[in-house]
From TrEMBL:
It comes from Sinocyclocheilus anshuiensis. The gene is LOC107654539. This is Battenin. It is a multi-pass membrane protein. The lineage of its organism: Eukaryota, Metazoa, Chordata, Craniata, Vertebrata. It is found in: Endomembrane system; Lysosome membrane. One of its GO terms (biological process) is lysosome organization.
């Protein structure tokens, strides 16, 4: 939860980050021909920043995407304890860089460090979950959902109370500290867990039989059952590059629908919501944007917690519904037919419900339907789905934002 809070705050603060830098970098008013000074006004029918909030999203997701694309092939050589320390230090650096930044570029670099922390942490903790009972995955879903609510709510609450975004980020330095304390002092590991060393060749989750005996990726297997191959652990080699590619092909039916869900929802969040501004509301533009993001995170939290009550196997259905949301809000931006922000509040809450349900159910069924010895790699590799969808949505949001702002 605390790892995700640091990353979530920048997505919710995207409008404020860009607005702050623009105000700091604004030049003096332009002299008019008659000798008076005039301010350059925005002729667009929308209240636009010079840079779309998609720029913050792109900085927030590209490092994560790079890590998730490559790390599953080598990260097993890095001990979990060392990975968490890297997450801790990069999160601290990100808060300090953004809070003290004087340019958009410095702020973006700060977000990049948050992305490294979040990407490495998500991949590592999903892999770590296979060492515990399946109930831990429900806790992971609830925790990451709660992180979104906490990050968005705390940022909105602190800024609404009159604190500057800079002071808010200083206060939130406690987040990575709690992350480190929780992992190293509160988490109870299995007795055989290799905390400060990489997995030895005898560990069953990093094994695979030779290519002639390879079994399908998707297969039912009870946690308590031990196969003959696992009993003969010492004679089984580690997963090869070819084995990992084979596993990833089997994961595509999970990765693609998850990617589509996240493409649609982040296209909404960073490409459209900033343009859904209602000037007759008592909330300012920045306040409306913050509460859009907060309600979205509440929806994510509720649906990620729902795993303990019911499971949804058809992820593609949630992909379709999320795409319909993106189309609806796209038309709402262009035609401006929505009467007030409350309609958007309800829509983004529903959007969050779909996104959170897609995420937690995807990883639940990957865990349940993947051979035990392949789960650690499969959980890490499948995490590329949401990040890839987010990265593509950020790229698509740039031209769409420029188009609308040119109207």
């Amino acid at each position: 939860t605390f790892l995700q809070i640091s990353d979530t705050k920048y997505v919710n603060a995207a409008h404020d980050i860009l607005q702050k830098q623009e105000s700091q970098n604004t030049t003096t008013p332009t002299p008019a021909p008659n000798g008076t000074s005039i301010e350059i006004s925005n002729s667009s029918r929308y209240d636009c920043n010079a840079v779309s909030t998609a720029a913050v999203l792109l900085a927030d997701i590209l490092p994560t995407l790079l890590i998730k694309f490559t790390a599953p092939f080598y990260i097993h050589k890095v001990p979990y304890g060392f990975r968490v320390l890297v997450c801790f230090f990069t999160a601290v650096v990100s808060f300090l860089m953004v809070s003290f930044s004087s340019t958009i570029l410095m702020s973006i670099f700060g977000v990049v460090f948050a992305s490294i922390s979040s990407g490495l942490g998500e991949l590592s903790f999903l892999s770590l979950s296979v060492f515990f009972s399946r109930d831990v995955l429900s806790g992971w879903g609830s925790g990451t959902g709660a992180a979104g609510v906490a990050g968005a709510s705390l940022y909105s609450a602190f800024t609404q109370a009159g604190l500057t975004p800079q002071v808010t980020l200083w206060i939130m330095l406690v987040v990575p500290v709690i992350l480190a304390v929780s992992y190293f002092f509160l988490l109870v590991f299995p007795s055989s867990f290799p905390q400060w060393r990489r997995h030895e060749d005898g560990h069953s989750t990093s094994r695979v039989v030779n290519s002639q005996e390879r079994r399908p990726l998707i297969e039912e297997e009870d946690d308590t059952e031990t196969t003959q191959e696992e009993q003969e652990d010492k004679h089984i080699r580690p997963l090869s590059f070819t084995d990992k590619i084979y596993i990833m092909k089997g994961l595509l039916k999970f990765i693609i629908p998850l990617g589509v869900v996240y493409f649609a929802e982040y296209f909404i969040n960073q490409g459209l919501l900033e343009l859904l501004y209602f000037s007759d509301s008592h909330l300012s533009h920045a306040e409306q944007y913050r509460w859009y993001q907060t309600l979205y995170q509440i929806g994510v939290f509720a649906s990620r917690t729902s795993l303990v009550c019911f499971k949804i196997r058809k992820i593609f259905l949630m992909s379709l519904l999320q795409c319909l949301n993106a189309v609806l809000l796209g038309f709402a931006v262009y035609y401006q037919f929505l009467p007030n922000p409350w309609v958007v509040f309800v829509t983004v809450l529903y959007e969050g419900l779909l996104g959170g349900a897609a995420y937690v159910n995807t990883f639940y069924f990957i865990r349940e339907e993947t051979a035990k010895r392949k789960r650690e790699f499969a959980m890490a590799a499948a995490s590329i789905g949401d990040s890839l969808g987010i990265a593509l949505s950020a790229a698509a949001a740039f031209p769409v934002y420029r188009y609308f702002c040119s109207l």
